[in-house]
Structure formats: C-alpha cells, structure tokens
Amino acid sequence: MAAVARGGLGEKASPQERGDPGGSPPRGQRRSYPVWRWAILLIAAVYFLIPLYSGLRFAGLKAFTNVFSQSGFISAIGLSLRLAVVTTILTLLLMVPTVVYVHLRLPQVRRIMEAITILPIVIPPIVLIIGVLKVAPGFLLSTPYLLALVYVILAMPFAYRSLDAGLRAFDLKTMVEASNSLGAGWPTTLWRVVLPNIRTAMLSATVLTVALVLGEYTMASLDLYQTFPVWIVNFEQSSGPISVAASLLALFVTWLLLMFIVVVGSRSARKRGGAELALFSVAPRQTSRTTGEPE
Amino acid sequence: MTANTARHAAAADGTRHEGREGGTSVLLQDLSRSFGTTRALDRLSLEIAPGELVALLGPSGCGKTTALRIVAGFESADTGSVLVDGKDISSVPAARRDMGMVFQSYSLFPNMSALDNVGFGLRMRKMGSADRRKKAGELLDMVGLSPQAKQFPHQLSGGQQQRVALARALAIEPRVLLLDEPLSALDAKVRLQLREQIRTLQQRLGTTTLFVTHDQEEALSMADRVGVMRNGKLEQIAAPDELYDHPATSFVAEFVGVMNRIPGELQSDRLVAVLGGLVPVQEGSDAAPGDVDVLVRPEGLRMELIQNGNGIVTNRTFLGSVTRVSVLLSGDVTVRVDKPSSEAAALPPGTSVAVSLPPEPVLVAPRRDVTP
Predict the structure, then answer these.
(1) pLDDT digit string (tens) for B155-208?
(2) Do B3-245 and B258-366 come out as alike in CATH topology?
(3) Which tens digit of pLDDT belongs to each residue from B19-33?
(4) Of A173, A184, A211, B225, which sits with the fewest C-beta atoms within 10 Å of its C-beta?
C-alpha cells in the first residue's frame, strides 16, 4: 500500500514513441534480463503465496462455507462497504478540485502539497482520531461514518498522488484555456474537459481508497466500530479457521473488485488513447504523431 | 490535402462561412504588464483593422505572447485596455469574448472525437445536436478532414490536430482569431501546407486575426502587417515588404532577414564613408557621427569579379535561384552577397572581387565589436 504514483511519468516517452530503434538492450543483456525477472518474480511469489497457502490449509474448505452464516459477518462487511463508498466520494469531492486548482493556479505550492499529503502516513493514528473528533460535526460523532472522515485523511497520500500523476499526463492549462476560449465557464470545463481526462487517475484513486478502507483495522478498532477487519480479529478468538477463511475471502473479493475497476478503467481509457490504469501510477498518454505522416 | 483542395471541397458542397459583416476592429491601448521584476509589455499600442491579419514577431520573451493572452482574456494588463469594435473588453472573461484561439501545443480535448471537438464551442452556444454536427462537419470539410471526423486526437497526426483546432476555433464564428505559434510544433512540410491553408481561410472568411510567431518567414508570408517586438515594445509595424526594405531600427533590420554589418564612418553631413565610397544615411538611423556599422542586405551589395579587389570569396551557399557568397573584406570583416546562381558559378572560393554599395540611403547603427 505504500507504493505511490511515480511523479514525472507524464514527461517520459517510451523508446517506441521516441522512434528510438535502440530502445531494447544489447544482445548480451537481453539474454540475462528474463532470468533475473523470473527469479525476482519467483521470490516475490513465494513470499506472498506461502502465507496464503498456509492459511488455506489451516482454515480448511469447510470454513469457507460456514463463514457467511457467522454472526456479525454480514453487518461488518456491509459497514466496511458503506464506509468505502462514503470515503471514496468524500475523497474525490475534496481532492479533485484541490489538485486541479493547485495545478492550474498554484503550481509553486505543489511540493508543499506533496509534503502535507504525506503527513497522514507519519502521524500516529490516535493523533488523527483525536484531531477528527475535535472538528467533526456533532451529528457524526455517534455514527460509524465518523470513520469515513478519518479514512479520507488516510487515503489522502494515495489519492493525491494518483490525481497529481493524472493531471501531469495531459496539458491541463492549455485544455482549460481552450475550453474557456470556446465559451465554456468553469463548471462546464471541469465537467466536460477536466474530469473525463483524469478519469483513469480518479479510478486509480478510487481503487486505492477502497482497498485502504476494506483493510483498515487500527482506526476502527480504536473507535470501537466493528468493520470487517475488526470482526475478523474479534472472531479469531472463538474460531481461528473461520477467521482465516474470512480473511482469505476478503482478500479474494477485494482483489476481484480492484481488477474489475482496473479492467473497466483501462478499456475505457484505451479507447480514447488515454492513460493506462495501473494501481499506483498513471502511465503517460500516447504521444501524437508529428512527423513523417501522410497529410 | 492542400489549401486549394480544401477550398474547392468547401465550395463544392456550398459551404459558406462569411466573416461578420464589416469585420471586427481591435485596438490595444497602452498595454503594460509585469511579471515580478520583468516588464513583459511596456505601453504597447496596436490597431488591427477589420479583416486584417497582423503578426507579432519577436524573440523569446519580447512580450508577444503576453499581448495575445491579454487579448484572449487569459492574462490581465496592469494598465491599458483592449477595445474590440470600440468597446473596452478588459473586464470581460475569456469565455465571453467570442475569440477563437489556436494554441502552440496540441489543445484538442483528448476525450472527444474530431467532430465533437469542433462542435464544442457550438454546444456552449446552445446549438442543437443536429445543427451542431452539421456545422462541425462543414468546418472539418473546410480543413479537409471529413474522413477523420470520428477519430480521437491521439489517432491524428500533429498537422491534422492543428487543422481540427483551427476548425474548432472558426466554428464559433469568432470576432477575432488568435493564433499562438500554431505551426511551431510541426515539421517543415506540414508547416508550409498549414500556413497556406490558414491564410487562405482567413482571407476568405475575413476574420480579424492576431498571429504570434518567432518565425519571420511565417510572419512575412502570412500577415498583412507585421509588428516586430522587443522588450515589451513595438519597434515597428508595417507591411512585410516595407519592413524588409525599410526597417525603422537596426534591431528590426537585423531581426528580419539577413543583414550585413560593414564598418564605416558617419560624417556630420549625414553621409557615411563605407567601402571606399560615400553614401547617404537613411532616416531613423540611430548613431552619432564617428565609427558606425552600415547595415546592408545581401542583395543590396554589388560585387564584381576583379583582380586585386577589396575582398576574397571564402564560401558559397546555394539557395536555389540565388547563391549566397561569403566575401572576406579587409579588417577581417565577412559580408554575404547574393548573386544569381548562374553568375555565382564563376566565383569559387579564393576569387578576388570588388564589393561596393549603390548610392542609395543606408541604415547605420552604433559600431559593434563582433562582426557577423
């Protein structure tokens, strides 16, 4: 989860885009690269898959069928999904106009913004919760949606970087000016020009936010709300195998959800020549052909 | 697709895009604009007649783009005003100025097809879907891109994108067309084609146009008048031939076209001693009596093949019908002289020649140490 969007991706062009025939490595290196790649992939796979396999063996297949009938399961996963939706909406409503405004009008504060948005990672959870409790509106204090406010802060580093990378991948200033010169006001420009072109980045931010909310334990536990991760930990005390089965199931469902968003987002973006959706970055838009083209 | 075929294609289906009756005049009055300590515009005044294409030409940082952006409404002037048809539009936002703009970088909306891009401005003007598509189609036809109507920007070449951008800007029937170096990102061949197409369309539609460029060839070949800018000020604005033949200042003389600097001595009677003769000095020359440089174009110098002349041919550059001959004069001064290519064949490097000036007024400038 710590991986973030790679800044400056939008300025790089692939060897093919540069028309660089020498883009591929020399012959000798080319032979050695795949071996290393496979070795690293294998090590990573072993690192991730062995615990999953162990969990699968520990839980047994029967636990997977029993997990749905356990008390509190449906309400916990329902709460986590509702929080994911609310958090995503709040995050996008807050971050999209902010990042667009910073890119357009305050490019000099981009570095400061990057520093600010990284703070939720380094500030202890208890400090964040106390901070949110101090400023949260009264009607939210006794509802689990208070957690959404905390999650918005936690999602900020990932959402900001996704949106920032998305905006860097196209010429925002020129697009906005072109739209204005054609008679579009600000709301229209944002709705018809800016948002469609950062859809991939918004999807990326959504993916990261949803993944964060579905997996977050500390804040929910401190606030005494039984979200899905909290339910898993609590249930572990009465039935270890079912708790592990629920964890694995949640992992699989989350993975399916993320893949669905990635596939839908990428297909839509590819159709319009837009950026490819990767979970933690936005690849640059395909550059235009400028030379050697039949007119 | 050439300009001619585009015009014929448009004419064939009866497409008719006339400019507003009587056209639109633009007046820039005493515009000043500073960015921090940098003065981008310094009391710039400029009048553009209805239907006229004026090019602002100058080196990077001279203020030409700032002037254009102030007219477009993307920047505001510190002082001064912009009048369109006599009305001050300084406080009118860009979206309500009715000005079509083509940008230097590709500015098509990536999420829209070529047709939707062209129709965007019409949509903002609440035109119905059917009418909008029809008119956008006509505009695309006018720039010769009907077959590409459904393609997205990433599927178009750079030249095609700029043509769509031009169609998009013209679709709203703008009061003023603003061109911000629209050709600079294109390769030479496409640039030449699009240059002709823009000029043809602009003349046919009669749209008042302000064109910013740093490419003098573009400015001189397209504009009715060219304004040369330097340090936020307009040095001279004139028709291209006037600008070339009678530059008002040494900066204009050297910025537009190729210019030789030949050392001379300015006398108090407004005659200058140069290349062994005396020639009159042109009005506007800004030098005091004494050592000066005489500014002469390569085609303004005479050169004869002669034994023991005042120069030796050092190089020849074939430019088609003419050849530019480099001649080393005494005092380590090199001048460039244009000769018909048929005559230049007899002037190989090492040939002794006599270089002189016809008795016509010349421009002089304060002496500069480094000769070109």
Answers:
(1) 999 999 999 999 999 999 999 999 999 988 888 888 888 889 899 989 988 999
(2) no
(3) 344 589 999 999 999
(4) A173
Determine phi and psi for A41, rounding to 5 degrees. -60, -40
Contact A175 B74 (CB under 8 A): no
B312 touching A (Cβ < 8 Å): no
Q: Where are the domains of chain A?
A: 34-282
Say if CB B342 and CB B271 are below 8 A apart.
no
Residue A116: both structure tokens together: 């600010």
**Number of Cβ atoms within 10 Å of the Cβ of A268:** 16
Q: Where are the domains of chain B?
A: 3-245, 258-366
Considering only CB atoms, A289 lies closest to which of B101, B103, B157, namely B157
Which residue is closest to B171 within chain A, CA to CA? A182
Give the ipTM of the model, two decimals please: 0.81
Residues from chain B that touch A182, judged by Cβ atoms under 8 A, are: 95, 100, 120-121, 124, 168-169, 172
Q: How far is A196 from chain B (nearest CA, A)?
A: 6
* Contact between A295 and B154 using a beta-carbon 8 Å cutoff: no
Least CA distance to B151: which residue of chain A? A272
The topology under which CATH files domain A34-282 is MetI-like fold (1.10.3720)
Quote the minimal CA–CA distance from B133 to chain A in Å.
16
Interchain contact, B121 vs A182, CB within 8 Å: yes
Kindly list the residues from chain A whose CB atom is less than 8 angstroms away from the CB atom of residue B145.
Answer: none
- Is the Cβ pair A171, B101 closer than 8 Å? no
CB-CB under 8 Å, B158 with A291: yes
Closest CA to B141 of B284, B5, B6, B307: B6
- Residue A140 phi/psi, 5° resolution? -90, -20
Q: Report yes or no: A291 at the B interface, CB cutoff 8 Å.
A: yes
Predicted confidence (pLDDT) at residue B312 exceeds the cutoff of 90: yes
Question: What sign has the CA pseudo-torsion A34, A40, A43, A49?
Answer: negative
Q: Distance between terminal CA atoms of chain A?
A: 47
Report angle CA B358, B360, B361 to the nearest 5 degrees: 135
Which among A183, A188, A272 has CB closest to B152?
A272
Q: Do A178 and B103 touch (CB under 8 A)?
A: yes
pLDDT, tens digit (0-9, with 9 covering 90-100), for A162-191: 999 889 888 899 999 999 999 999 999 999
Closest by CA to B187, choosing from A20, A13, A292, A15, is A292
Q: What pLDDT was estimated at residue A18?
A: 37
Report chain A residues whose CB lies below 8 A from the CB of B36. Answer: none
- Binary contact (B168, A184; C-beta < 8 A): no
Distance CA A277, CA A295 (A): 32
Q: Give the residue, A284 or B169, on which the prediction is more confident.
A: B169
Would you place residue A288 in the very low, low, confident or very high pLDDT band (cuts 50, 70, 90)? very low
Per the CB < 8 Å rule, is A290 touching B96?
no
Domain B3-245: assigned CATH number: 3.40.50.300
Q: What percentage of residues in chain B have a pLDDT greater than 90? A: 67
Instruction: Please provide the size of chain B in residues.
Output: 372
The CATH number given to B258-366 is 2.40.50.140
Q: Is the pTM of this model over 0.90?
A: no
Element (H, E) at A232: helix A228-236
Integer Cα distance of A92 and A115 in angstroms? 19
**A61 pLDDT band (50/70/90 cuts)?**
confident
